[in-house]
Model the fold of this input.
Amino acid sequence: MLAEPIRHDWQLTEILELFNLPFNDLIFKAQSIHRTNFNPNQLQLSTLLNIKTGACSEDCGYCSQSARFKTELEKQPLMAIDAIVAEAKQAKANGASRFCMGAAWRSPKERDFKQILDIIRAVKAEDLETCLTLGMLDDQQAQQLSEAGLDYYNHNLDTSATYYPKVISTHTYQDRLNTLTNVRKANLKICCGGIIGMGEKVQDRAELLQTLANLAIHPESVPINQLVPIAGTPLEHAEQLDSFAIVRCIAVARILMPSSNIRLSAGRTEMNDELQALCFLAGANSVFYGEKLLTTDNKSTEHDHNLFNKLGIITSYE
Done:
């Protein structure tokens, strides 16, 4: 089968038609496209470490790290480089090929930036791909990260531009898009996706994917997160997401962005093995791997290995 051309001109009506396809037809289309671009039995594994916890000034309604919400999270300053490198070595030993690091900031402070650059160099020295999420970046900061050897920068759009103000008020959708522009200008790869299950409609999911798919260059990694409701946050009582919703979202993302890694991200602890297998069938070819995702739990590495073995899946690191 010939690979379909990469498009950047998707119309919302087209995307909604994909979401509304009969389930079997949608999965068949997504899996067919997936097979023309990737080994369907291979996953890329990334491990995510919170290198600075809590006390964030922003009001993202899903986040335990906001200083505005009364969660049980214990604040932690920026970790020492040696401790981060030790975690990176363990992640590599467990099979991860990319080490992702997150710090709870609106944007990185100048006083911390030199240490961030040193962290990138130290983790790169362990022969791992590096990814950071530090909040919003200006063009100079993005360039410095690139010069230090950073591979990926994560900055999710979270949801549609329409629904966004119902989740976040302390920075705008355009702020996020501006950061993506600065990251791309610095020749960094982009990791950008969203969260479903925050009360948004299917149209919001379609609009989010339209925004991502119509960027001049598709994000190299597209994490699809399922909301993990956290006590003390505005979204702690969000209605539980229907299982098929995340499968459909992954399948549509795969169709719109054929050569991107579509990552099954937060919310995997709520998924049984059968649902995860459906997500892989729908085109997910990357997972966050390791027992913690920033401040929420994740599947154990032992559980993941058992599942991958059952499904005949190999990892990109093997």
User: Anything to note?
Assistant: The chain has one domain: 12-33+43-257+266-315. The longest helix spans residues 23-37. The domain at 12-33+43-257+266-315 is CATH 3.20.20.70 (TIM Barrel). The two ends are 27 Å apart (CA to CA).
